[in-house]
């Protein structure tokens, strides 16, 4: 019988050569990148000898590129986690004209452009991208052209809320960059769960800082005053040192931020069987954000939370959990007992002895006066294209006290309609996911986003919440998530996430 043919075996003394050959074959197509990296490292070393700061910055950029380009979703994670702590940093502290979050977004978008694309690519364009383009045209381009046509001009000297007219015009661009990064890298339920965990974790830290600020903890209060100063709006508010701001520089924006975070946490808790999110994290989010929300003194956010909460439970088809109700009540009781003088003072200012004798709360009565005597007449004079980024009426009062009057005064009817076009797309996308009744992660995200859109439009009656920092970045992040959910639902399968 003939011996069977054995496969060829490399002699033991030649195995080292085999390993070298295998190692070398792994770099057959990567030698250009490797040589380029070595050349870049040499260049950075040369620059460091000339200017250490530039060399350090370029070296850090190189490290970020190596770590993040193969895993672009990490870029989104970093931005989402850092945004609440960088958006309120004083403008121009590092780069002239930019806040910390804006500088971070520019760097993140640069890395995102260079990063590895997901299966659907980076240009997952939808009608929401068209909506943003519509907002940019109607809110920035057309008002400026109309302003120049009337003989006016744009400059960078006039400042409102710490922003120049040019910064006001380009402000919406930062949120679109945030949206484009998130929607282009989300490709699995694991990614969405991580986004939600980061949102809740960041909100807990923001709330704790705000509570400590209200408690008068010296280092915390000094830290917030130094690095997150409230921009001057040209007038002094009596309770400026009583209502907490945390890292969001304004108590109203902190109120909106905690309100939308609470609604998202409620939606996730009612669907916790679909999510791999710790119930303890959700409970901590509700407890601490509820206390912080009370201490902002933002009553319209309290009202929006109640209405949004009803919508969450209605769309979820579930009654509120006893644990969740108990947690919310405990938070309210704690805030009321510990900070009772503040709560009493706030109610007295609005509807008690310290308020005017009208039917409406004091702040609403004042807004009605400003609307009827200053802003509505100005809107009537510039109804078609608006008065531009810095209307002269702001010399009499530095804010329109309403998101809708903000849109009409600065961009006219087209800008007002573009905003509602965007809202309509957001509501429609969420509703389609809700009607599909998918058993996956899409349901809680769609429920929470729908309720948040309702809440923000309630709050918009009393201030420009959507164009301010606070809740806005969460809304754009969630719009990106629901859009990604719908896109991957169409192809029927999520991608398998790569290991971190």
Give, in order, the helices and strands.
HHHHHHHHHHHHHHHHHH
* Proportion in helices: 55-70%
Count of extended strands: 0
Percentage of residues in strands: under 5%
DSSP summary: helix tally: 18
The coarse silhouette is globular
Based on CA atoms alone, the radius of gyration comes out at 26 Å
User: CA-to-CA gap between the ends?
Assistant: 55 Å
Oligomeric state, counting identical vs distinct chains? single chain
Q: How much is the average pLDDT?
A: 79
Q: Structural class, from secondary structure content?
A: mainly alpha
Spans of 5+ residues with little confidence (pLDDT < 50)?
5-13, 26-30, 234-238
Biggest beta-sheet profile: none
Q: Descriptors for this entry?
A:
single chain; 500 residues; mainly alpha; 18 helices; 67% helix; 0% strand
Describe it.
- With 500 residues, the chain is mainly alpha-helical.
- It is built from 18 helices and no strands.
- The chain has helices spanning 15-25, 31-50, 52-68, 72-86, 100-114, 127-149, 165-185, 189-214, 218-227, 251-270, 279-296, 299-316, 322-338, 340-351, 362-381, 403-436, 442-459, 472-491.
- The radius of gyration is 26 Å and the shape is globular.
- Mean pLDDT is 79; it is low at 5-13, 26-30 and 234-238.
